[in-house]
Amino acid sequence: ETTVTQSPASLSVATGEKVTIRCITSTDIDDDMNWYQQKPGEPPKLLISEGNTLRPGVPSRFSSSGYGTDFVFTIENTLSEDVADYYCLQSDNMPYTFGGGTKLEIK
Amino acid sequence: EVKLEESGGGLVQPGGSMKLSCVASGFTFSNYWMNWVRQSPEKGLEWVAEIRLKSNNYATHYAESVKGRFTISRDDSKSSVYLQMNNLRAEDTGIYYCTPYGNYVFDYWGQGTTLTVSS
């Protein structure tokens, strides 16, 4: 089973600042990493799919990079509407495994 | 518009059983692998089970934590997927989501149905 270690668990930034979230996998998963946003009371929403592909309709301030075992998710120019929990998910092998999540707050 | 509607959650005692249902619309259901993912404050998001296509002989896969207790099934004629859960434990408590895996993994989600396992 591939373990996904996500950090940090929480962070607080001012609007306009850059957010960086990291996921490290215990096995090489090529670029089969996905990133989700979950706002309170809502289900997760897929923002970025395998191959660092931004989903249609997702603002370009969201991006990701990485290959192998080290992956980074970035929000440029963070807005107040970006307050949410963020999760990474590896889909390279079963069982699919999620990171523990990052709670983003705005100062 | 893609819609997924989960139902069947509720309160059940440890050792009990429950069957969850999910009805989908807005996409060609029979062409998508279907999954159940659950969420709890203690464990976060956790993949539970997957069922593949008729062409895959409806192959199923399970998380180790539910193997032997949960059974996923589908009825393509009803665009529905089910999760039969037996011998339930407190740690099975959470919100259960059904979600398809097509060109993208878990691209659509319903609002979920809540299961509480408690005496």
How many separate helices of chain B? 0
Low-confidence stretches of chain A: none
Structural class of chain B: mainly beta
Helix content of chain B: under 10%
Q: What string, H for helix and E for strand, traces the elements of chain A in order?
A: EEEEEEEEEEE
Number of helices of chain A: 0
Summarize the structure.
The complex is a heterodimer of chains A (107) and B (119). Chain A is mainly β and 107 residues long.
Secondary structure blueprint with pairings:
The complex is a heterodimer of chains A (107) and B (119).
Chain A: E1 4-7, E2 10-13, E3 19-25, E4 33-38, E5 45-49, E6 53-54, E7 62-67, E8 70-75, E9 84-90, E10 97-98, E11 102-106
Chain B: E1 3-7, E2 10-12, E3 18-25, E4 33-40, E5 44-51, E6 60-62, E7 70-75, E8 80-85, E9 94-101, E10 113-117
Parallel strand pairs in B: 2-10
Antiparallel strand pairs in B: 1-3, 3-8, 4-5, 4-9, 5-6, 7-8, 9-10
Describe it:
The complex is a heterodimer of chains A (107) and B (119). With 107 residues, chain A is mainly beta. Chain A is 0% helix and 50% strand. Chain A is built from no helices and eleven strands. In chain A, the strands form two sheets. In chain A, strands 2, 4, 5, 6, 9, 10 and 11 form a seven-stranded mixed beta sheet that branches. Chain A is globular. Chain B is mainly beta. Chain B is globular and about 40 Å long. Chain B is built from no helices and ten strands. In chain B, strand 5 and strand 6 (60-62) form a beta hairpin. Chain B has a six-stranded mixed beta sheet with strand order 2-10-9-4-5-6, with no helix packed on it. The chains are: A mainly beta (107), B mainly beta (119). The interface between A and B is medium-sized, with 20 and 19 residues.
